[in-house]
Amino acid sequence: MRQGTGTAQVKRWLRYLAFALALAFLVLTVVNASWLAPEPKGAVKLIAHRGIHQLPDRAANGRETCAAGGIEPPVHDYLGNTARSIARAAKLGAHVIAIGVASTADGEIAVFDGPMVDCRTNGTGKVRDLTMAQLKALDAGYGYTIDGGRTYPFRGEGVGAIPTLAEAIRAARRARLLYDFTGADPAEADRLAAALRKAGRDPVAARDGFRGDPAHVARIAEHFPGAWAFSEESAAACSAAYRTWGWFGLVPEACENGTLLVPLDRQWTFAGWPNRLIARMEEAGAHVVIVTPHEDGRLGGLDLPEQLGEIPASFNGYAMVEDGFTVIPALINRFDDRSQAEIDAAQAALQRRRESR
User: Fold this and answer.
1) How far apart are CA 96 and CA 222, in angstroms?
2) Where is the GP-PDE domain (predicted)?
3) For residue range 316-334, what is the model confidence (pLDDT) as tens digits?
4) DSSP designation for 227
5) In contact, 265 and 299? CB cutoff 8 Å
6) Nearest-CA neighbor of 229 among 285, 274, 184?
């Protein structure tokens, strides 16, 4: 009798446990159901990284290699972070343009990708050790090569092309800007804030953003309370915490007024994707950015038009774009002013890129 009674009790508790688990699963499913969340307002917003630029050849570039040292065969003549490339990205319809910023020896803010000028230009040294006039004298296209240094298709084409912050702002027209700090000095945030005020640019009113080290972000918060500002560390912390706690209907503290990065191939790991997640992040004052993972673990942007099809139609956050020359027109074709020759060359380049993966 005792053995039978004990067996019956075990079975009863197993039934209770199974019922509790099923109930918990049902509750969590309903709590995170995207289809039960309100429909987000608006559409996806594209962030053109460096404006329109030359894409690095992934096979030719390691993690520490300057992208100019090995690029894909060019299909256009735009150099990233120049006024021309920023203006073209804006004309094609980019909502936000991410630009590298660094302070110069004479107190200006230059728009340039990286703290050193050695790789991309015919100069040497750090951006911060050169005056704006010295940077203007450099050839911004000097170091770009497609064949390991045998030919340099843009040499002589980039003299005077490194813009000041004011020139970049004018080139962007109505597009928003995401300022990427390329140096490690926190004081660069103070210099950028001063330059923005001098240029008459209110980043809060313009809905611009800032990305840099945690020290940069802290300084920007002092200068422009309420501005969108994040570091890789803060965004990673938000994303990791939400992937755990989001399934319980919770928004982690790390995401409050923060930035959530969602890898394109890992959308399903984020609770309530997309509508419920968007509602939670909007309530928390957070920005959601779709990125693409590289083989070495770095995060990048969309570089194939078909990747747009992997983004839910209701998503109204941001998507980082690496190849703005092809991805932006694929979403916003009414501004596509590319020539047929440019389109044909771009399509051939896309096919080579697909085949290389």
Assistant:
1) 23
2) 77-171
3) 999 999 999 999 999 999 9
4) -
5) no
6) 285
Specify burial of residue 122 (Cβ count, 10 A radius: 0-12, 13-18, 19+): middle
pLDDT at 299 over 90: no
pTM score, whole prediction? 0.91
CA angle 71, 167, 205 (to 5 degrees): 105
Identify residue 222 by its one-letter amino acid code: E
Strand partners, 263: 291
Assign 3 a pLDDT band (cuts: 50, 70, 90): low
Q: What is the DSSP string of 162-222?
A: --BHHHHHHHHTTSEEEEEE-S--THHHHHHHHHHHHTT--HHHHT-EEE--HHHHHHHHH
Determine the average pLDDT of the residues in 62-78: 83
Cα–Cα distance for residue pair 285/290, rounded to 1 Å: 17
Total residues found in the chain within this entry: 357
| Amino acid at the residue 281 | M
Q: In this structure, what DSSP letter does residue 269 have?
A: G
- Left if phi > 0, otherwise alpha if psi is -120 to 50, otherwise beta: which for 140? alpha
Q: Degrees (nearest 5) of the Cα angle 344, 348, 353?
A: 145
DSSP state at residue 302 = B
Residue type at 78 in one-letter notation: Y
- Per the structure block, which two tokens stand in for 187? 């004081």
- Calpha distance 176→94 (Å, rounded): 9
Greatest extent of the chain over all pairs of C-alpha atoms, in Å:
96
Contacts for 133-139: CB closer than 8 Å, 24+ residues apart: 133/106, 134/105, 135/104, 135/110, 135/162, 136/160, 136/162, 138/162
Pair 299, 291: CB distance under 8 Å: yes
Report the helix count and the strand count for the chain, using DSSP H and E: 11, 10
Preceding peptide of 274 cis, ω within 30°: yes
- Cα–Cα dist 59/213, whole Å: 28
Angle at 326 between CA 320 and CA 330, to 5 degrees: 85
Number of neighbouring beta carbons within 10 Å of residue 124: 11
